[in-house]
Amino acid sequence: MTVEFGVLGSVEAEVDGRSAKxxxxxxxxxxxxxxxxxxxxxxxxxxxxxxxxxxxxxxxxSTLRGYLSRLRQALAGTREAAIARQPGGxxxxxxxxxxxxxxxxxxxxxxxxxxxxxxxxxxxxxQALRLWRAEPFATLDTPWFNxxxxxxxxxxxxxxxxxxxxxxxLGRHATLPAELSARAEAHPLDERLAGQLMLxxxxxxxxxxxxxxxxxxxxxxxxxxxxxxxxALRDIQSAILxxxxxxxSAPAPRPPAPPLAPVAQLPLxxxxxxxxxxxxxxxxxxxxxxxxxxxxxGTGTATVPRPTVVSxxxxxxxxxxxxxxxxxxxxxxxxxxxxQLYVNLRGFDPCGPAVDxxxxxxxxxxxxxxxxxxxxxxxxAQAGLYRxxxxxxxxxxxLDNARDAEQVxxxxxxAPGCVALVTSRHHLAGLAATEGARLLAVDLLAPDxxxxxxxARLGLRRTAAEPGAVDxxxxxxxxxxxxxAITAARAAxxxxxxxxxxxxxxxxxxxxxxxxxxxxxxxxxxAVLSTSYQALSPDTARxxxxxxxxxxxxxxxxxxxxxxxxPRSRTGALLTELTRASLLTQHVPGRYACHDLLRVHATExxxxxxxxxxxxxxxxRTLDHYLHTAHAADALLTCTRDPIVLPPAxxxxxxxxxxxxxxxxxxxxxxxxVLLGVVGRSPAGFDTxxxxxxxxxxxxxxxxGHWPALNTALTSALRAAQRQDDRSGQATSHRGLGxxxxxxxxxxxxxxxxxxxxxxxxxxDRSGQAxxxxxxxxISLGEGHFDEALAHARQALxxxxxxxxxxxxxxxxxxxxxxxARLGDHRRALADCRRALALxxxxxxxxxxxxxxxxxxxxxxxxxxxxxxVDCYRTALDLFRRTGDRYHEAGSSADLGDAHHAAxxxxxxxxxxxxxxxxxxxxxxxxxxxxxxxxxxxxxxxxDTPVTART
Length: 951
What we know:
This protein has 951 residues and is of the alpha/beta class. The chain is built from 43 helices and 16 strands. 60% of the residues lie in helices and 7% in strands. Helix 19 (467-477) packs parallel to helix 21 (499-507) and helix 29 packs antiparallel against helix 30. The longest helix is centred in the N-terminal third of the chain and has 27 residues, at 143-169.
């Protein structure tokens, strides 16, 4: 009996040539998940996550069991395939005769790329590509399926390119120009494809067309990416100009690069790493096996990597957990050809909170090439997308300095062949119980290992010359690697200083070094850190102390220069000295961080050695650096209609100069954790900085959907303004809390707006009052009170005109027009919005222009002029994408769908609504539910049916 499963198209199963009745899409999705992980256990949680994403039903497990029962009935007629209950989950177990087209496809590609026979390889590639019936997992729409679908499409594209290379080498080029021309239109920036088309055209006697395609490709690369073609494509052009030199195929590595570029995030490995032989041997046991069990592809036995392996390295602070993990990761990185991911989770940072798991996943998704607008908002959805991207890949994931098991779990890959390595001060036994993690406790170095470490750092000749001093240093450092490393760095920086002198200094700190065997970690290394600090030059020592005043988690050269009040060139030299002395690490290019114990020590030192005035000036410079740069970045993101007026920056502060919209977004993204840390910490005496900095974050955090973080920051801002009875700060913070509260659906949004309106009125701030009326109008609109909304808009317009605020006037006019349209006065509404557009264009306000075009689209739609409405909405969408405003992009996409629907263009309506639904889902906005129902009604399907855009 033959059994065949198919996922490269719709999800299907055939038993002896007859289609099995697999049921509806969700049920087929369960079978697809099990087929992807054939003969391996998939946990219940993984099944729920992959099949439903971040929208599981209330009784997900019960529903899942029902699906599994019906699938078992569908396969009841065969013994070759069965869905088996396993500890913790389920598995689709099969005989060797059973085939799954996905595994067959990958197995055939592996065989094709392994043979030296071009004819045989071409046949295998063709056989693999024939397995594709349509887009994989048709109709299934969850983060996991979408990510795996994208990966498979890229794998097919790579296989197509490999096959074309073979056909070119074999002289089978006659039919290639037409085929490759169509493919090149779909992938105009693919240089390898461009090279293949050029060769095919040239071989067919169409050299002029080949050279023309090169020039068109080059022009597009320059226009869209700002780069010239790579050497391979330039070589093909040169060879065509010299016919005798034309290569037989387009240059491309074999095997081809994986669908996603390998990631290499590992920090620099510790120089002269020594010892830990037993621990390294234990870690070597984690490596994926070179061979595995047969998957039953029907095309021969395929190799399957072992399931995901998790290991936890635990031990006391400074014992060398990170050094061991990073050293081993570098040593075995060849076993993970698809890359190595790394994140410092800062689980035990005394000066700042641990890294939020969602932020860590966002960092990984960014490293894996996921655009920000493709990142979903919910943690579960983010984890599903992240795990989906790792499916079918060998990746090492290093999770450093974890706080607890809950922080780690969403970051664990689910893909077989991946390894997750976790370091923590805690044993994280919970991971062993539920995820089967292997636990490895790291102890202090034995005396012989400690001596070897010193000899490796200082040279055998120097340590052999003073064995007594070495023994004393080893004893006083108690085998703690960090203490030994810092002592060795100081000795290396002073090659003429006798080791005996260092040993004598350590001996005088006897009581504190004895604390290495227990107690508060901050007290264990104080003597060692003090002696290392005393070896620094005066300016470097001062910068190290001042770093104790910085909120963390890391700092850039420009910010460090403001902190120190020094030129950037001088500060760069000081940072280099601190890095060489092992007191700082450059964990990513341009960003410096220090160990949590070093930060504690720096804080103690700055308190003890620097005056109150000196510390206050340093904090003032740092806060001015971030505030003035954030203020400038905010102005680049939006044409601010009521800007906060800042006093000049404190002497010595050097805010960064940013260029353009992208520069502002990049700076905010890189500094987000620092900025939120500054606001949350709210340094004493700097309450004005706190509320002003929080206000500069509103646009960025709103557009990127970080509403909970924005709400927290504005709450801190309001408290800061209240502490100093700053009514302007209170008014601004109340307005911001009303704004983010309306986004989050908080019931107190109205209170905050009302309080802001009253405060702005007391202050005589007309622009502030206008903004509040603007937002109150939006709330009235949402409640269906159109007359009330129009009244608020008119008041906003009057206030803006009194303040001579042209940008604000444009927005208010637009609101007047939109609300009049809601009341049925479409002709006057059209005139209002056209005046608003003219004003926004006059002030070069892209946001105002986008809002005006969106409103014009709404009005034309309700006048029955749907062709005009579509044009207006498309213009608005282009502007919203340019400004990064995902929320309003979602709303305008939904309205565009309405216009298409009214014009009876149902496919276009479906596409627009599907795009809007994707955005609302990613933002976690409640509007998604109503939109999903509308799409399902259009399709004639139940409301919980996954939505896939029509093509």
